[in-house]
Amino acid sequence: MKATAVELLSEDAAREELARLAEAIAEANIAYHTQDAPKLSDADFDALKQRNALIEARFPHLKRADSPSDQVGAAVADGFGKVTHRVRMLSLENAFYPEDVTDFVDRIRKYLNYSGDLRFTAEPKIDGLSLSLRYEFGQLVQAATRGDGETGENVTENARTIADIPQHLRQAPEVLEVRGEVYMSHADFAALNTRQASRGGKTFANPRNAAAGSLRQLDARITAARPLRFFAYSWGDLSAPLAETQLGAIGRLAEMGFQTNPLTALCDGPASLIAQYRKIESLRPSLGYDIDGVVYKVNDLALQARLGFRSTTPRWAIAHKFPAELAWTDLLGIDIQVGRTGALSPVARLAPVTVGGVVVSNATLHNEDYIAGRDSKGAEIRGGKDIRIGDRVQVYRAGDVIPKVADVDISFRKSDAQAYEFPTVCPECGSPAMREEGDSVRRCTGGLICPAQAVERLKHFVSRNAFDIEGLGAKQVEMFFHDPDLAVKTPADIFTIASRDAANGLKRLKNRDGFGETSVAKLFAAIEAKRNIPLDRLIFALGIRHVGEVAAQVLARHFSTWAAFEAAVTQAEEGNAAWDSLLAIDGVGKTMASSLVAAFANEQERAAIDALVAQLQVQPVVWKAATDSPVAGKTVVFTGTLEKMTRAEAKARAEALGAKVSGSVSAKTDLLVAGPGAGSKIKDAARLGIEVLDEEGWLALIGPA
Hints:
This protein folds into five domains: about 150 residues, CATH 2.40.50.140; about 240 residues, D-amino Acid Aminotransferase, Chain A, domain 1 (2-Layer Sandwich); about 80 residues, DNA polymerase, domain 1; about 90 residues, Orthogonal Bundle (DNA polymerase, domain 1), CATH 1.10.150.20; about 70 residues, 3-Layer(aba) Sandwich (Rossmann fold). The protein is an alpha+beta fold. Helix content is about 35%, strand content about 20%. The longest helix has 24 residues. About 0% of the residues have low confidence. Strand 13 and strand 14 form a beta hairpin. It is globular, with a radius of gyration of 27 Å.
C-alpha cells in the first residue's frame, strides 16, 4: 500500500507530504533521542523515514533542506558532557517488502558493477538505545550515546554498571570502538515497573523507554539498579581491522567478551535473506526482548569500504522492518490545514483508537482526490470508495507520525451521509484556492497576506536547521504574529522587535504573562546573536519551495557569498547564460531553479528578502576540503562510460576526497574525467584549456580507496 501510494503522488502532493514528514520526524527525533518519551515505535519511525526516502527517490528535486534523509538522531540533552564521534554513528535505510530486499541487492551490484559472489549477514534489529564504547589498550575509557550521529552524550559511568559491557578486553586492537544496543528484557521490564509502581515512582510505557531512561540517568547509581543488557553488532574507530568479513568481525567481538546475537546468520542472496527474516519473525514472540526487524549487511568488508556511505546511511546495510498495525475507528470530521506554501491539507479527526501502542485521534487524508477515491490521474483507489464524515475508516501508521486513513467500510455508512466537498477558498484568508493542471494539491493564492502561510513561514524561519533562535519557537511565533504591539509578520520584523518593544511603554514584553525581564533579555540577546548567519542557513530559512537543507548547502558552497548568490538568481531567466549556469550546478534541477527565480522575481517576496538581509551580516561559506587529497577543492566533471566503477561510485569517491562534482563543463571546471563515449564535453574542455584525464589517470591521481 505504501509503495502504491508513493507512485500515485503528484509533484505537489509529494512536496506537501515531504513537508509533513520533515516536521513529524524532527519532533519524533527529539521525543525519542533527547526526551526519552517517544511518540511512536521504532518500527513506525523507521517506516516514516523510508516513506520520506521513497518520495525523494521519485522526486529528487523536491528534497528539502531539512530532509530527514540528511539527519541522524537529535541533539544531545542538557546534563551530560558531549562526545564527538570519531566515526559517525549512522542510521539505516529501511525495507518493508521482499521486493525492497531484492532492490537493495540489485543496487549494490549495480553500484559496484559486481557480478561475483555476494553474501550478507542477517541479524535481529534490537529495539533499544544505540551506544558506542571506546576501548584503548583493552580498557573501557568512554561510552557515548548516538545523539545526532556526530555528537553524543557521555554516559561512561552509567555504561560501566551494565554487566554485558566488559571493562577489559582480551586481545583487542590498541583502539577499538564497539557499537551496539542497550536494551531491557521483557521479564526485567515487568519487574522494574512492578517495583516502580510499589514505590509510587514512574512506570515506563515499554522496554525501550525503560532502557533509554535508565542509561541516561545523571546518577549512575540509578542506572546500576536497572537491569540493562547490551548486544554488540558493529564498530567505529579502529587501529587495526578485526577481520575480513562482517561475520568474522562479530566473531572477534564475541571472543573478546561481548554478547552478540545468536540469530545472526550468513545468507547468499535475497531469497536466503527473506527466509532468515521469516525465521526471526516467527521467533519474535519467544525471544524475551523487543525487535522491530532484521538488519542485512554485506559480509565482505572490502566491498563495504567500496560502497561507503550516503549522508546518513551506509550503502551496504538495510533494515527489513516488520509490518505495521491497522485499526478501525469513526471519522468524526475533516479539518483543512494551510501550510507555508499555501497547500490545503485535509486532516481526519477520529474517535481515539490505539494503533501500534499509540492512541491516535487524527490522520492525514492527503488531498481531495484521495478523499474522492481516485488517484492523481483519475484512476480508482480503494475500489472507488470515497471518504465521508461519519464513516468507519481503517487507520495505519506504517509511514508517518501522523497516521493515515487506508480504507473505508461503507457497510457502516449512514443513508444521509454527504460526499465531502473540498473547499475552493482558503479557510484562513478567504483567497481563492486554486489547483493547477496536473497538481493534486489545491493552494491558497493569498501568499503573504494569508496569515496561515505567513505564520508557517516564520516557524520555518526559526526552526532548528534555519536560524534556530533560542527562546523563539513555534509557540512564540504564533503569539508575536497575532500581537498588535509586537507585529512580527515577516522575518525582518524579528530583528527589529527589541527596538520596537522599547517604545511600547507599559505594554512591553517583559510585563506580560509568561515573560520577565531576564527571559526577555535572553531572547533579545539570542536574536541579536543570529544577525551573523552562515549563507546556507539563510538560504534554507527563506523557505523557498524545492530548496531544502541539502540544496541550500549546495548553493552556498557553490556561490560562497550572498552577493554572488543573489546576483546569479536575480539575473537568471530561462534560456539565458545565468540560467544555464544555475542548472550546471550539480544537484540543481529545473524545478528548483524555477522556484528560486520566481521567489526573487516576486515583488512581495523580494521586498521581504531584501528587508531581512539588510538586518544581517551573512557569513560566506568557504569550501572545506575533506582531506588534503590532490583533488581537494577542485571542480570535477565526469563524462562518458566509466569501466572500473560506476558514475555514482566515482562521484562519491570524488566528494569524499574534497572535490566538487559538477554536471557541466565551464570556466570554473578544474578537471574532466572522460570515459569511452564522451561527447561534446571534451570539446568544451579543450576550448577552455581544462585538463582531461581518462579513468586510469583519474584512479592514479586519487590513489587507492
